[in-house]
Design a protein that fits this description.
- The complex is a heterodimer of chains A (358) and B (259).
- Chain A contains 13 helices and six strands.
- The radius of gyration of chain A is 21 Å and the shape is globular.
- With 358 residues, chain A is mainly alpha-helical.
- In chain B, helix 3 runs parallel beside helix 6 and helix 5 packs across helix 6 (159-171).
- Chain B is globular.
- Classes of the chains: A mainly alpha (358), B alpha/beta (259).
- The A-B interface holds A 2-4, 199, 202-203, 206-211, 213-214, 217-218, 220-229, 235, 239, 347-348, 350-351 and B 55, 57, 76-78, 81-82, 86-87, 89, 93-99, 101-102, 105-110, 112, 114-116, 118-120, 122, 126, 129-130, 133, 151, 153, 155-156, 169-170, 172-173.
- The structure holds adenosine-5'-triphosphate and magnesium ion.
- Magnesium ion binds at residues 47-48, 90 of chain B.
């Protein structure tokens, strides 16, 4: 029996699972009634969930603080953009490009990992932060002398997914329901999410997953217990990065456009905040954190302005400013009152509470 | 008199310096297969440093180590573990937020092979290996006597149980030599008695044990041979009764008012 699989056991949980599945299947149509924008927002939220789950391998499992994670997202996105757009005139199908993107990101992860193997904590954070910036600046400047990335202008007209006759760039009418492009992506993302959740759970509860956690807990003891910490850490970077690359590819297709400014440090910090807020290491905590942090800003964006107009007759505070204010406050409060995250991994919880109460 | 075939570990001329401190100076010792070998000495004598050099956590400045007939050159800790040397730590180093069971399962790492793809696809061989890891870990928890706490977090266990758990994790690597750094430290008389039984059981199961211990009664009663370190140098190596009577040993201990 595997005791620590953090997935809900199927037995005895059938009804809630079925209800959840129905809700998730119906969700995009409900959202489309409010506005197609909300389907798009949901899709981006799911992308962030995928990213957080990838980063969770590095930060949550192996305990390696990575502040440059968005670099792998960027790598995946650019691989997709270059192989499915008029920029080079290459138009490969998505199911070929996504694995390529994940693979290239995986290599990039190992390349970043290699020089950081002896670093921990703050030092590791700084080096990874630098790496994230290097990748972005690289994308920004790779337009000269050979135009590879098209520089700050980015790459546009990226091909949408195409599965047989189904074009993710167009709407299809089926059984009286309007399957718009975003709705199709939504279902695709949900499948990807299920896959990534299962893989995460399996990794966590495996020989390699235990080695990651052992390194997080005590690197010296892990070494002395026969773990090749160098390789196992590299593996964490590489695995985390490939999830980032995969998400990046989907991002490029959904957005239809990539440019370096999508991959700034802020995004890395946001993804890290999702992992930490939800509860490091706990897969469902991480999902919750990512959903919360992706939707909160959007909800604020759509409510702050009308509310202020109704109450004061004019705008006092710019929604963007308020958004960051609330965001910062929420993080501070969380760290103060629930330092292990909102839904922590059970093993972290007690420790973090003890530390916090000292 | 040591026939070559009996020697499990042969360390010669080991030196280690930390800045101005010569923690080990030209230390040579030979451990025979199947014996319990005691390593004693006053605080700061260099016992733990010897363990750290032996297990590859520190690089030695000089000297040779041969283990089980093969030289241990500038090894990293995981290759030393793979070669068959397992250890515990003076200041217990468990994976605190993992369960007792998981701690021991980590010890199986070096004897198993599943990689990420096996885990992601949960292949037949991965599942079989995983079941084997779990079975072995359960056996070892029973063996050291902490099976009741299999699902407790390591850091929530009692001190004595943590020490035993650390031994179980070390045993999970299937070592030829088990190096214990002050396993009885902080234990009461009952716990020490049980530990003694455990170590004797290990010897009768054919394991070779290298034991650092301050509890003189335990060392003298348990060990086949004892070496004494003082200021980084080996001042004596013999059977317990001879070591106990050695004037240099008495002076080293009285001089530092140990016990
Ligand atoms: N990492 C290190 N850096 C600097 N000095 C060290 C280091 N490790 C040990 N020493 C020094 O080396 C000497 C031997 O220390 P060691 O820990 O090996 O002694 P010990 O015999 O295990 O003592 P104890 O019985 O107190 O555990 C001491 O003077 C110690 O201060
Ligand atoms: Mg010591």
């Amino acid at each position: 029996m595997r005791t620590h699989l953090n997935l809900p056991s199927i037995k005895g949980n059938v009804l809630p699972m079925v209800l959840l599945a129905i809700a998730l299947i119906a969700l995009p149509f409900a959202l489309a009634l409010v506005g197609t924008a909300w389907v798009r927002i949901t899709n981006f939220a799911v992308l962030f969930v995928l990213l957080s789950l990838g980063l969770n391998i590095v930060v949550g499992f192996a305990g390696l603080l990575d502040l440059g994670y968005v670099a792998f997202f960027a790598v995946g996105a650019y691989v997709y953009a270059l192989l499915a757009s008029p920029h080079f005139g290459i138009h490969l199908p998505f199911w070929i490009i996504l694995p390529i993107g994940a693979f290239v990101a995986c290599i990039a992860g190992a390349v970043l990992g290699a020089p950081t193997l002896k670093l921990r904590g703050d030092y590791l954070a700084i080096v990874t932060l630098g790496f994230g910036e290097i990748v972005r600046i690289f994308m920004n400047n790779m337009s000269n002398p050979i135009n590879i990335t098209n520089g700050p202008k980015g790459i546009a007209q990226i091909d949408p997914f195409q599965i047989g006759p189904i074009d993710f760039g167009k709407s299809d009418l089926l059984a009286g329901l309007n399957f718009s492009g975003p709705i199709k992506y939504y279902y695709f993302l949900m499948l990807a999410l299920m896959l990534v959740v299962v893989i995460n759970g399996r990794l966590k509860d495996s020989r390699i997953g235990r080695a990651w956690v052992a390194i997080r807990e005590d690197e010296v003891a892990a070494k002395a217990s026969g773990i090749n910490t160098r390789n196992i850490k590299l593996l964490a970077f590489a695995m985390g990065a490939s999830f980032g690359g995969l998400s990046g590819g989907m991002f490029a297709a959904i957005q239809g456009f990539v440019s370096p400014e999508s991959f700034v440090l802020n995004e890395s910090i946001m993804i890290l905040a999702m992992v930490v807020l939800g509860g490091m290491g706990n897969i469902f905590g991480v999902i919750a954190g990512a959903v919360l942090l992706s939707f909160l800003p959007e909800i604020l964006r759509y409510t702050v302005e009308p509310v202020q107009m109704a109450v004061f007759g004019h705008m006092w505070i710019d929604p963007e400013v308020l958004r960051m204010l609330i965001f910062g406050l929420a993080l501070v409060l969380t760290m103060r009152y629930r330092p292990a995250g909102l839904w922590p991994e059970s093993r972290h919880r007690r420790e973090m509470t003890v530390v916090a109460n000292k | 008199m040591t026939a070559a075939i009996d020697v499990l570990l042969d360390a010669s001329g080991i030196g280690k310096r930390f800045g101005g401190v010569q923690a080990l100076k030209d230390v040579s010792l030979t451990i025979r297969r199947g014996e319990i070998y005691g390593l004693i000495g006053p605080n700061g004598a260099g016992k733990t440093t010897f363990f750290n050099v032996l297990t590859g956590l520190y690089q030695r400045d000089g000297g040779q180590i041969s283990f089980d007939g093969k030289p241990l050159t500038l090894e990293s800790p995981h290759t030393v573990a793979a070669a068959g040397i397992a250890r515990t730590f003076q200041n217990i180093r468990l994976f605190g937020n993992m369960t007792a069971m998981e701690n021991v399962m980590v010890g199986r790492h070096v004897k198993t092979h599943a990689g990420v793809f096996g885990a992601m696809l949960r292949t037949k061989s991965e599942r079989a290996e995983e079941a084997g890891i779990r079975r072995r870990a359960e056996e070892l928890l029973h063996y050291v006597g902490v099976a009741d706490h299999a699902n407790s977090l390591a850091r929530e266990m009692s001190y004595g149980d943590q020490r035993r758990l650390e031994i179980a994790r070390a045993l999970a690597t299937e070592p030829k030599l088990l190096a214990l750094d002050e396993p009885a430290a902080g234990m009461n008389a009952t716990e020490t008695g049980a530990l003694r039984t455990l170590i004797e059981g290990l010897r009768s199961d054919g394991l070779t044990v290298l034991l650092i211990e301050h509890d003189v009664k335990l060392v003298m009663g348990l060990c086949d041979r004892v070496a004494v370190l003082d200021y980084g140098q080996k001042i004596c190596e013999d059977i317990p009764s001879v070591v106990r009577a050695n004037p240099k040993v008495i002076e080293a201990y009285i001089g530092t008012a140990n016990e």
